[in-house]
Model the fold of this input.
Amino acid sequence: MLEFLKNYWPLLVCIVLIIVAIVLLIVFKDKENVDDNAKTENNEKTTVVANDEKNDEETKKVEAKATKKDEKKDEKEVETTEAKEETKTEETKTEETKNEETKNEETEDATTEKDVNATEKKEQAQKYMVSYDKESKQWVVKKTGATRASKRCKTKQEAMQVAEKLAEKQDLNLTVKKKDGKFQKKSNAQ
Done:
């Protein structure tokens, strides 16, 4: 084999050089294709980024317009509600003044009648009552309209004596009830 290499070495070197050249050409073409692909990808990315930026700007503009419209609507609504409130307050004020005027006229006319009726009702309504309290098992002397009893007694006779004295002092009527709550006696104190 050494003899073969000695005789044909220049041919072998040429073959190796040709193979290296072919490999280098393939590598450089691939590198150019990769560079071209990278350039096209970069161009595509820049166009995509540019388009995205344009879209973002457009959406921002649209959103700004929408918010301006919303603000204008809100301002209009506020103005209309304020106007409605003003008219309502004016209407209520006029109604209140009318009501006050009519009330003043009515009260002037009715005060004399009410005073007379009130004194009559007080005289009629206020009276002393003697009744039996089942819970405390006591007889109670109470003025009508009062929340508390004037006097509590163990016997009905004692309660009637107390009630008669109080009714005479204040010129009021006296009502006596039975133990079951039915009326027994009504008397006028005069």
The two ends are 165 Å apart (CA to CA). The first strand starts at residue 127 and ends at 133. The chain has a mean pLDDT of 79.
